[in-house]
Amino acid sequence: MILLKLIKKFGKINSIVLFICILLLLLEFVGHRHGEFKIEEFLFFPALFGYISCIIIFKVGVALRSIFMRDEDYYD
Amino acid sequence: MINSLPPGFIMFIGAFLIPFLPKLGRQVYMIFLVLLSSFSLFNGFGTHLTINVLDYNFIINHSDNLSLPFAIVFHIAAFITIIYGSHKDDWKENIAVISYAGAAIAALHAGDLFTLFFWWEATAFTSVFLILSGNSTRAYRAAFRYIVIQVGSGMFLLAGAVLFLYTNGNALLGQMSIDDTSGLLIFLAFGIKAAFPFLNGWLQDTYPEASEVGTVALSSFTTKLAIYALARSFAGTDILIYIGALMTFFPIFFAVIENDLRRVLAYSLNNQLGFMVVAVGIGTELAINGAVAHAFAHIIYKGLLFMSMGAVLYRVGTCKGSELGGLFKYMPITAVCSIIGAISISAFPLFSGFVAKSLIMSSLGYEGLSFIYFMLLFASAGVLHHSGIKIPFFAFFAHKSGHKPKEAPLNMIIAMVIGSVLCILIGIFPSIFYQILPYSVEYQPYDFSHVLSQLQLLTFAAFAFICLWHFKIYPPELNSTVLNSDWFYRRMFPAVISNIVDGLKILNEKFSLNCFRSFSTIKNFFHDIMFENKVIDREAGFDTQIVLQIFGIIVFILIFIHLK
Predict the structure, then answer these.
(1) Do the chains contact at A33 and B257, CB–CB below 8 Å?
(2) What is the ipTM of this complex?
(3) What is the pTM assigned to this prediction?
């Protein structure tokens, strides 16, 4: 019941992505995941790296708006 | 004789018959030219044609394991572009597409620097008409800037080639070093076309101004020709690793804030070139394989993304994220193809981007370049953000835009489906794909660690976007211009020159110095060119270029005769 409510609130596709995310985290315990570098073998490293990168890109992008954004006809 | 001509030459020459053919005959003829040209691919490796002029051997047709994969994918790209553009009855654009593709393919088979220079310039002069086919004042001005920069690259190449010939006694296209002046000049020439940081302004400035077909053709050839040239002459040059890493890094942020979706793709193209440049910089067999594989896969999925956005532009009339949305209902096939392109470029397992990018990431791992590795990993998350999500999401989903277009024309759909199928096939059968790469390397992209790491990285990056969008933190797209390195020559330099001239003029008036009298004329000249207050006469612009070209060639011949 609570789960259905959550899905309704978060949207179907979003819930599916969330479900896949959880599944991928669980897969970490199925086999040994080695990486090119030692630090990559840290638990959930790629997941954390991906999530944080995306937030940083968004934050920096928004900050850059004030510096690099001009009117549409700036060069005209 | 025909067999010994370089592939692409027949396309370049055959283009001149196009105006005399009817519309349907033209399309069939162009495809016929591509097929005819592709036959010379199977000539085998080695030098097939040299021409001796003025005691100098021009190596016109030389093929080896590095040029072959590029030549194959250039033919595929030409084929797809022709199908994609066949709804249009525009012989000028047709000529531009086929001769541009032909020149690029022939350039791959140049064995010496002067032959390369000829085709290098040929790609510039043929492709500028694709930008002009955008058919707007903006497109015309962009074309003018484009040709100046492309010819500039050619001039660096010519200067480098002449110096190289002078110091080494030959001008063979082989491994070079940036420690000599000649090597540095040639490196710069390649760097301009490969859109190195601060030399990249032309790419984002001009590609989105071309027609929908023109952009697809442009995205395939020029920049990848530069990657090929770098791989041939500067493989293993350390500085390329850092240049490439910067190239992957900075365009991400600009792509996030850019509104024009084709310009977002141009930033993303720049970012993808960065991956290839890093791989060329590493220079090991695995890395060169990675660069070539990535260029191969990239031409197809980037073409696919540009095709889908071109279809949207063709049907809706705009490509701005702020004015699009909700098109999935009306253009479902285009949307699905765009999503396949987006998944491929994001390097999801089972798609072409994954099998190509893995080679580069692994070669970084083997060399122990951890910092660059994590920069590229960060860039991979960025690719997902701006190409993987932003492009399909803002065009086909997001909010309702009110546009109710028809599905793309049949020929466009066919071209996009071919691209999509290739993306998937390369992803599913990497071992066949790896066979055409320059070196035979045993490599298995699909193992538990690779696949799980990549999936975790990408799905969590996507999940971050979902959270930002769901909780309404992600700002809406805004109509805007984003400043890029073209600002330096479109705004800063003209302003600086204008101020200096103003200052001198004041000095002149105060002290009535005759020698400064002509400065006001110079100032007006710069105003006309740079600030574009007056529309420059179209022919005059090209005349200047042609005069410059002829001047360059005369200088070259004089030096050449002098050396002999």
Answers:
(1) no
(2) 0.93
(3) 0.90
